[in-house]
Write a structure and sequence with these properties.
6-stranded mixed β-sheet; 24% strand; 6 helices
């Protein structure tokens, strides 16, 4: 018979702490390290940082009620940098969310806290740009390997299942920031718990983060919705991608329409293996594109011949009705 004494109770408490620490170590080894992966970083000939893979996918892991993930990390081989250089990051898009039927803001006001040591930032659906922090300094051999923690938080308890997307750039003083990279982290629960659902969510996030030419609304396809956006904004200046500026000159004009026309009907490669949505037959696409071009050019030329050289631009679209657009030959 085991008699509980003060000494015994202290021993039992100490034993419980040891077992708890062993359990956590086992969890970290079997779960966290099994998913260990990094974004490889290097510098190209022009002095711009590069990162690979372009899309990193992981799963939030729950332990003691917290949903977190420490991957991906960031690593650079020896001799990539100089001793004393540092590596950091920024988040360049709002927090994205998908369950495989498009991209939206997280439905439960969820956000992701990114932290390392005493540094942390919060990325929400309202974040346009979040300046990150320095992950670490490069060692004497010119390489670096650092991880930070991604924690899923929000008003709903537990957070809404789905795939959450962070669009980041890697930074280092003295080098040009990398092109955007996507970190897609899934929270599995309830009806959202299969590999296929994760793949669908990641595919839609990928199509949104890296849109194909002409996909102004970033839904993965170039179609009438994108044409309508370009038509509405035709002639404006100080425009961005979402307004129809596909050439990067700040103006929505005929060159942008030509870019959209050349890719009309295309679908993002990330969505290619997903169940296709109902779309017009290829012949219908071709006729529609030709009709758009035949309708647009005379209006553009007429507007150009009647305008002066002032900064005010005339919109030649003239806002045709939907029936007029659909009636194009």
């Amino acid at each position: 018979m085991f008699i509980v004494t003060t000494t015994n109770s202290k021993f039992v408490a100490a034993l419980c702490v040891v077992l708890l620490q062993a359990t956590y170590a086992l969890y970290s080894t079997t779960c966290c390290q099994a998913q260990h992966f990094d974004i490889s970083v290097w510098v190209d000939e022009e002095g711009q940082l590069q990162g690979s893979p372009q899309v990193s996918t992981g799963i939030f892991e729950g332990f003691f009620g917290a949903l977190s993930q420490q991957n991906p990390g960031f690593s650079a081989s020896n001799n990539v940098f100089q001793m004393g250089d540092s590596l950091g990051f920024n988040v360049v898009e709002p927090l994205l969310y998908s369950v495989g039927d498009g991209v939206s803001a997280p439905p439960g006001s969820e956000y992701i806290e990114i932290n390392k040591s005493s540094s942390s930032i919060e990325v929400r659906a309202t974040s346009e740009f979040e300046e990150g922090f320095i992950l670490g300094e490069v060692g004497s051999f010119g390489g670096i390997h650092e991880h930070m923690e991604y924690v899923l938080l929000g008003e709903s308890d537990p957070p809404t299942p789905g795939v959450y997307g962070l669009v980041i750039e890697v930074t280092s003083p003295g080098y040009e920031a990398s092109d955007p990279l996507l970190v897609a982290l899934a929270h599995l629960d309830g009806d959202f718990d299969t590999l296929g659902q994760i793949r669908e969510g990641v595919a839609h996030l990928t199509a949104y983060a890296f849109p194909i030419v002409g996909d102004l609304n970033r839904d993965g396809t170039v179609n009438l919705e994108d044409f309508a956006i370009l038509k509405e904004n035709f002639g404006i200046s100080d425009a961005g991608w979402s307004e129809g500026d596909l050439t990067g000159d700040g103006i929505v004009g005929l060159p942008d329409f030509t870019e959209l026309k050349s890719n009309f009907g295309s679908q993002h490669s990330a969505l290619a293996e997903l169940p296709p949505a109902a779309v017009p037959e290829p012949t219908a696409w071709a006729l529609l594109v030709c009709g758009m071009f035949a309708w647009l050019v005379p209006r553009f030329l007429a507007a150009g011949s009647s305008s002066n050289t002032s900064a005010t631009r005339v919109n030649p679209m003239l806002n045709p009705s939907e029936s007029e657009v659909m009636a194009m030959p």
